[in-house]
Design a protein that fits this description.
- The complex is a heterodimer of chains A (about 210) and B (about 280).
- In chain A, about 85% of the residues lie in helices and about 0% in strands.
- By secondary structure, chain A is an all-alpha fold.
- Chain A has one domain.
- In chain A, α1 packs across α6, α2 runs antiparallel to α3 and α3 packs antiparallel against α6.
- Chain A starts with a helix and ends with a helix.
- The chains are: A mainly alpha (about 210), B alpha/beta (about 280).
C-alpha cells in the first residue's frame, strides 16, 4: 500500500515539473549576486518543506479523498505515507537545489566557497526546520483543505513570528544559548521528533474523523 | 456480502434510514430520484461517512474493522469522486499495481485501450463518460469479490453502456461475486439486477426480485367507478388521473382474471418507481 501511495505522490509531484526545474534557477538568484548562502538556505528550507505537503491539494481535488479511501488504504496509512513522502521529497529537493547552489557558489565566488562538510551541517539544520514546518503544515492542510489552509497558516505564522520577536527582545534565547548551548543542540532534535510524533497523531485523528 | 441494518445518517434537511443487503452471487440495484439517498447509502456502505446508528457489515465484518486486504476485495465506482485529475492513465498502472496484490495490468490497459482512453492526458481533461470508463476498468482489474458502483453508466453513450453491462455480466460469471449498483437508466437495471431496492427520502420504499417485479407487478388504469367496485387487497398505491385512477399492484394476474375490463400495463422499473413515489398509499 505504502509503495503505491508513494508512487502516486511522486507522479503528482512531477506534474509540477516546470516549477521544479525553476527552483535551482531561483536559488542562483540568491547566491550569485550576494556571494553568500545564508538567504539561499532560507529559500531551500521553505521550498523543500512545502513541496510534499502540496500533494494533499492534488488528492483532495474534485472530492478525490472519497475515492482514495475506497482503495486499500487506511486513513492512518495515508497519514503515515504523507509524513514519509514529505520527509523524503523534502530531503531530495533540498539536496538537489542545495548542491546546485553550493557548486554555483564555488564557481562564482571561490573566495567565499566553504567546505562540503560545513555545507552538509547547514543542510542538516535546514532539514530539521523544514520537517518542523511540515509537521505544522500537514495537520492544517488535512483539517482545512488547500484554500483555507493558506489563511490559517498565514495567521499562525504571524502569531509565531510575533512570539519569536517578543522572545528575542526579551533576550531569552541568548540566555538559553549562554546557559546551556550544549543542551540546546541535544534538545532541538528531540523536540523536533516529539513535535513530529504529536503532529502525526493529530493528523491521524483529523483524518479518522473526516467524512467524504 | 454487504449488509446495512437500520443504518441512519442525519443531515440538516435529509435523513437516511435504510436496511438492505447484497447477497453472494447477486447483482443488486438501487434506484431512486436524484437526492433520494443513493449516494449517501453508497458512502455509508463504504465507510466514507459515519452512520449515526445501525450496523454495516462487509464480508461479514463491521465496516470500521475492514483491513486493507479486505478493501482489495472491493471494486468501487463513485458518482462524484475518482482518481486525482492531475494523474494520467499511464500513471495508474504503476499505482494500482502496488496497491492491489492481484492487479491485472494487461486487463486494465486493454480495457482502457478498448474504451479509447488517452494514456497521456490528465484525467481532469476527460469527459464524464471517459472518467466512468476509467474507473470501471480500474474496479474490474483486480479480481474484486464485491463491486460497488454508483451510476457507472452516467455520461456513457449507448455502445459504451452496453459494453460496460457486458463487462459486469462477464464479471458475474465467476462464482461468489456480487455487485451493488445504481443507475438512473432503468433498462440497465432490468437486464442486469437480480433484485432491486427503491429508495426515496432516505428510506426503502420497495425491495423486490427483478423477475417478480417485471412478471407480477402491473399498473391498472381504471375509471372511478371501476376503482370503487374493485377489490383493493392487492393494490399498493393509487394515483388520481383524468380518466380515474392508476393503481400499482404486485398481483396483476388477480386483476386480469377478475376485472377483464381494466386496462393493465406490464410492470416496469420506471412505472413502479413513479407510482411508489408519486402515488398515495
Amino acid at each position: 500500500m505504502m509503495k503505491g501511495l508513494l508512487i502516486k505522490d511522486l507522479k503528482l509531484m512531477l506534474t509540477q515539473f516546470a516549477f521544479l526545474i525553476l527552483l535551482p534557477v531561483v536559488g542562483a538568484v540568491f547566491v550569485v549576486p550576494t556571494g553568500e548562502m545564508s538567504m539561499g538556505f532560507g529559500y531551500i528550507t521553505a521550498v523543500s518543506g512545502i513541496i510534499g505537503v502540496t500533494t494533499i491539494n492534488y488528492d483532495s481535488y474534485d472530492n478525490g479523498f472519497a475515492y482514495l479511501f475506497t482503495l486499500p488504504i487506511s486513513r492512518r496509512g495515508y497519514v503515515k505515507e504523507k509524513y514519509l513522502f514529505a520527509a523524503l521529497s523534502s530531503v531530495a529537493v533540498m539536496m538537489a537545489i542545495g548542491l546546485f547552489m553550493w557548486a554555483l557558489m564555488a564557481v562564482s565566488h571561490p573566495e567565499n566557497a566553504y567546505a562540503f562538510a560545513d555545507f552538509l551541517g547547514d543542510m542538516e539544520d535546514s532539514y530539521s526546520i523544514a520537517l518542523t514546518a511540515v509537521a505544522f503544515m500537514l495537520p492544517v492542510f488535512l483539517k482545512f483543505g488547500a484554500e483555507k489552509s493558506r489563511f490559517v497558516i498565514l495567521i499562525i505564522a504571524g502569531i509565531f513570528m510575533g512570539v519569536m520577536i517578543g522572545v528575542s527582545q526579551a533576550e531569552v534565547l541568548r540566555d538559553i544559548e549562554i546557559g546551556g548551548g550544549k543542551w540546546v543542540r541535544v534538545l532541538t532534535p528531540v523536540l523536533c521528533l516529539a513535535w513530529l510524533c504529536a503532529s502525526y497523531l493529530i493528523s491521524v485523528r483529523i483524518m479518522e474523523k473526516k467524512e467524504f | 456480502m454487504l449488509r446495512l441494518e437500520n443504518v441512519k445518517k442525519k443531515y440538516k434537511d435529509f435523513e437516511l434510514d435504510i436496511t438492505m443487503e447484497v447477497k453472494p452471487g447477486c447483482v443488486t440495484g438501487l434506484i431512486g430520484r436524484n437526492g433520494a439517498g443513493k449516494t449517501t447509502a453508497f458512502k455509508a456502505a463504504l465507510g466514507l461517512i459515519r452512520a449515526a446508528g445501525g450496523e454495516i457489515t462487509v464480508f461479514g465484518k463491521p465496516i470500521s474493522g475492514l483491513s486493507a486486504k479486505d478493501r482489495e476485495k472491493m471494486g468501487v465506482v463513485l458518482s462524484d469522486s475518482g482518481f486525482s485529475g492531475y494523474l494520467k492513465v499511464k500513471d495508474l498502472a504503476a499505482i494500482l499495481g502496488n496497491l492491489y496484490s492481484r492487479f491485472d495490468e494487461g486487463y486494465f490497459t486493454g480495457k482502457c485501450e478498448s474504451f479509447g482512453l488517452p494514456f497521456d492526458k490528465r484525467i481532469k481533461d476527460f469527459s464524464t463518460g471517459m472518467r466512468r470508463k476509467l474507473h470501471v476498468a480500474a474496479a474490474l482489474s483486480h479480481h474484486a469479490e464485491l463491486l460497488i458502483m454508483d451510476e457507472p453508466t452516467a455520461g456513457m453513450d449507448v455502445i459504451a453502456r452496453e459494453e460496460l453491462l457486458d463487462m459486469i455480466r462477464e464479471y458475474m460469471e465467476t462464482e461468489g461475486r456480487s455487485v451493488l449498483l445504481s443507475s438512473h437508466i432503468s433498462g440497465d437495471l432490468e437486464g442486469l439486477c437480480d433484485d432491486i431496492y427503491l429508495i426515496d427520502e432516505g428510506k426503502v420504499l420497495l425491495h423486490e426480485d427483478t423477475d417478480v417485479l417485471l412478471d407480477t407487478y402491473g399498473i391498472l388504469k381504471v375509471t372511478k367507478e371501476q376503482y370503487e367496485a374493485m377489490d383493493k387487497s392487492f393494490l399498493m398505491c393509487r394515483r388520481k388521473e383524468e380518466f380515474g385512477y392508476s393503481c400499482l399492484t404486485g398481483e396483476k394476474q388477480f386483476y386480469a382474471e377478475n376485472y377483464p375490463d381494466a386496462v393493465i400495463e406490464k410492470g416496469s422499473i420506471d412505472g413502479v418507481m413513479t407510482m411508489m413515489i408519486r402515488g398515495e398509499r
